[in-house]
Amino acid sequence: MSLKYELTDEINAGGLRRIRALRDIPARGVRANDLGGWVAGEHSLSHDGYAWVFGNAQVFGVNACAARSDGYTFSVVATPTGPHICAGCRYLSLPNAREHWTKTRGGTQLGDETMAILDMLERVAVIRGLDKPVEDGQ
Question: d(Cα 133, Cα 120) in Å, to the nearest integer?
């Protein structure tokens, strides 16, 4: 098995480390040396493609995705408390997502693009019935 990722020396405010691809992963549109997301440590990386879920974690299907021009990806998921946006290390309700990206990207091209993506994901959630809370275990 060849390794897919390595940890970089870049650490964010939450203490997470950024990853870098060591080889091309065509199925994911990743090229060697592309920078990726943020992880707690080497134990968070899977080089063989499997995922483990522990403790009281709940897993809900991703229902729609969109990417900004800088490659930042947004997903909307149905949860027991209604639709949430997953983006990077963020997991926010739609109102909280809009508030966050207005504060951090407001008045910029990326901010405008983010708001358009959130609008689209919210509309898709309504079309697919994801605007209603799902019950635990669904």
Answer: 19
β-pairing verdict for 73-77 and 84-87: antiparallel
The Cα 17–Cα 110 span in angstroms is: 23
Neighbouring C-beta atoms of residue 88, cutoff 10 Å: 12
Dihedral sign for Cα atoms in the order 52, 57, 62, 63: positive
Q: What is the DSSP letter of 43?
A: G
Identify the H or E element spanning 111.
helix 109-127
What does pTM read for this prediction?
A: 0.56
Cβ distance 94 to 85 under 8 Å? yes
DSSP 8-state symbol, 28: G
Evaluate whether 74 touches 91 at the Cβ level (below 8 Å): no
Helix (H) or strand (E) holding 124: helix 109-127
Q: pLDDT tens across 62-102, in order?
A: 567 888 888 888 888 888 888 889 888 788 999 999 999 99
Q: Are 122 and 76 in contact (CB under 8 A)?
A: yes
